[in-house]
Amino acid sequence: MAEFTFTDEQAQLKAAVAKFCSENFDEQTVRRLMESDPPFDAAVWTRLGTELGVLGLSVPEADGGFGGSLIDQAVAVEQLGASLACGPVFGTVFLAIPALVAASSGPVRDGLLAELVDGRGTAAFAVADKAGAFDPAAVTVTASRSGEQWTLTGTVPRVVDGGVADDLLVAANGPDGVALFAVEAAAAGVARTPLVTLDLTRPQATIAFTDAQASLVADAGEAPRVIEHALQVGSALLAVEQVGAAQHLLDLSVEYAKTRLQFGRPIGSFQAVKHRLADLLVDVEHARSTAYHAIWALTDGSDDPALAASIAQATASAAFARVATDTIQVHGGIGFTWEHQAHLYFKRATTDAALLGSAEQHRSRVAALVLDTAVAERAPRVADGTPA
Amino acid sequence: MSNDADTDRVAGLARQVVADHDPKSVPIPEFLAACYDAGLSWVHFPEGLGGLGVSRGLQAVADRILQGAGGPVPLGLNPMGYGMAAPTIREHAQSDDVKKSWLRPLASTEDLWCQLFSEPGAGSDLAGLATSAVQDGSDWVINGQKVWTSLAHRARWGLLLARTNPDVAKHKGLSYFVIDMHGPGVETRPLRQLTGQAEFNEVYFTDARIPDAHRLGAIGNGWNVAMTTLMNERSALGGSASRRGAGTIADAVSLWASRPDLQTPVLRDRLAQLWLRAEAQRLTSERSRAAATVGGPGPEGSIGKLVGAELNQHIYQFCMDLLGPEGVLYHGYGTGARDEDESESDWRGPVQQRFLRSRANTIEGGTSDVMRNILGERILGLPGDLRADAGMPWKEIPRG
Lengths: 388, 400
Known about the structure:
Chain A is an alpha+beta fold. Chain A folds into 3 domains: 8-122, Butyryl-Coa Dehydrogenase, subunit A, domain 1 (Orthogonal Bundle); 125-221, Butyryl-CoA Dehydrogenase, subunit A, domain 2, CATH 2.40.110.10; 225-371, Butyryl-CoA Dehydrogenase, subunit A, domain 3 (Up-down Bundle). Helix content of chain A is 50%, strand content 17%. Chain A is globular. The N and C termini of chain A lie far apart (53 Å). By secondary structure, chain B is α+β, with helices and mostly antiparallel strands. Chain B is 43% helix and 13% strand. In chain B, a hairpin with an 8-residue loop joins strand 6 and strand 7. The longest helix of chain B has 27 residues, at 265-291. At the A-B interface, helix 7, strand 11, helix 8, helix 9 and helix 11 of A face helix 8, helix 9, helix 10, helix 12 and helix 13 of B.
C-alpha cells in the first residue's frame, strides 16, 4: 500500500484489537496483573496469538504466520500500547519474532517461531544493544561447542521480559564470532533474577548462564544481520507503541480539560492549558508520521531502515515523554496520585524512552547519517558588512 | 471512481501541454495559460475553470510533469492568487462568467492578487475590522485603511473584507468583495519593515467603488467566505517542501557544512533537533496529503503553519549562533524604496536578512498564538476563551 494509507482490513484489525484490549486490558486488570507474579495472564496472551492472531502478523504463512505485513503488526501494536497491554510484547513481538523471521529456516527456529506466533510460548531477547544498534563488543556471553552441543556461559543484565519468558534468544561469542542461540529459560544452568522496575507493566530480569544448553538459531555468518534487523523492527514497533500510548494520554487530557471547572470555567478554555495541549497534538502527529514512516521503510524498502528507525525513535521517545509529563501537569493534584492512571503511562514513557536507545542517542545517529555527510552546496550568502 | 483513468488523463494532458508549450522557450504567462486551458491549474476545479473535476491529490501528478519539464511553481509567482483567491473565487463568485474573467489571467499570472484583510485596529481579531462598505445603487462605496498587504503595489485585484453593517455582532456585519486595485480612490503606500525592505503596503480607500457583481457570497456572510481564504492560506504556508532536507532547513545544513571551522558538538545537536523537526513535519504533510480527498484543506493545515513558522525562526537563529560575530554584520538597510528590493535577484537576501525576516513568520497569516487556539478548539474540541465582546453590536465594542 502507498505510504500512510491503511486498508479497510487494517481498520477492522484496529477495531478488533481495541475491543479485545478494552475487555482484557482495562485499567483495573492492568493494575491487578502488574502486581501479580508473573505480571501477565498467560491465557489472555494465548488468545492474542490464537483467537486474534496479532502476535506474528508479519510472519510468512510458510512459517505458521498470517502472511501479513509489518504494517498490520504496527496497527495491532498501537492499540496494545494505548492500553498498556500486559505481557511480553517487547521481548516476543518487537524483537524475538522479527529475529526469528530474519533467520534461516531450521527445526529450532521454525518450532520456536510457531510457538511464539500462537501465543503458546513467550520469548525475551537477551542481546545487549548499543543505542538500539547491534554492537558485538557489548556481548557478554560465551558459547562453547562440544560436538553438536552448544553451551552458554555469561550474564546479560536487564533483559526486558526475561523473567517471564519461556525461551531466551541470546547473542554469544563463539569460535566464529557472535551467533544467536535459543535457550529454554527453565533449563539447568539458567539463573534468572527478577528486578523491580519503574514500570511494573514492563518487567526485567538479569539472566546468568552457566554451561546452559543452547540451540543455534543464527550462525556467526548471519547473526549480525538478524540482530540488526530485529533491533530496527523493534525500534519501529516501539515507536508505534509510544504513539498509541501518547494518543491515549492526549485524549485523556483533552477530556479532562473540557470537564474540569476552575474559576467557573473549563480549564481547557484557558490559553495556558489550551496551548499546551495544542503543542502535544503537534508532537503526537509528528511521532505518528515518523513511526509509520519507519514501518513503511522496513516494509517496502523505500528508505534507509536505520535512518528511518532513528528518526522515529528520536521523535516518538521525546513526544511520549512530553505528553506523559504534561498529562500529569494538566490533571494537577489528581494526576500525581496512585489512583489515577497517569503515572502508569508516565513510567512506561520513561522506560520506553530508555529502551533501544534514547532520543538523544538516536538524534546523534541521525546527525552522523545526515549532517556529518552534508555538502555545502547552495549555502546562503552571508552579509559581510560591505554595503550592497 | 476511476482513479487510474483519472491519473492517466491528468498525466496525458500535462505531457501534451509541455509538448505544445515548452516551458523552457515560451513566456511564463503563455505556458501557465495553456495549463489553465488544459484544466491543470487546479485539477479539482470544474472543467472550464482551470480544472478537470478530479481528485485534488492528482495535482501532484500534473505538477511533477509540468515542473519537471522546467515549468514554474505558480504559487511562488502569484501567491495570493493561487493560494487564496482562486479557491475563494471558485466557491463564492456570483457567476461562471465572473469566475472565468478572473481565474484565467490569475492563473497566467498576468493579474496578480493581494489580500486586504488586516487593519491597524484588527489583527488577530480580524472580525473587528472597520473598513466600511456602503451600498449606493448597484455599487458599494469603500472607505478605510488596510495594512500588511503583500504585493498590493503590483496587484490588479484585491480580496477585500469590509463592514456592511455596524449594528450587528462583529462576525455578522461583514461582506466580501473583489476590488480593482487600479480604480479611483485606492491608494497604495509602501510599509517599511524591520529588515529595511518594503514587502508590504498600507492601502487607503477613499470613496472607492465596487460593482455588486464583484461581491463574493451573501451580504453579511463575509466572515464565512474569509474562512475559505484563510484555511487555504494556512495550508499554502504550511504545505511546502516534499523532498527530505528541502526548504529552510537546507539553508542551515548547507551553511553548517560550509563552515567546519565553526562546528561544535552542541551546535550539531541543535541542528539535529531542527532537522528532525523539519523531517517530522515533512512526513506529516505527506501523511495529510495521503489522506486528502476532493475536499478543501482542513484545520490540520494549521499544524504545518504553526510548526513551519517557529521552525523558520529557530533555523535562522541557529545560523546566527553558528556565525557568531560574523553574523552581526549586514548589507545595509537601503531606503525602503521599492526598486531596491525588486531588483534583487536573490530576493530572500543574505542569511542575516532571512533571520530578521523570520520574525514575521509567527505573525503573518495568523499568529502562532491564534494557531494554537485553532488547534485547541477546532481539532481538539476545547472550549473557546471568554470574549468580552460576545454578542455586542460592532459599533459598541471598545476599540483602541
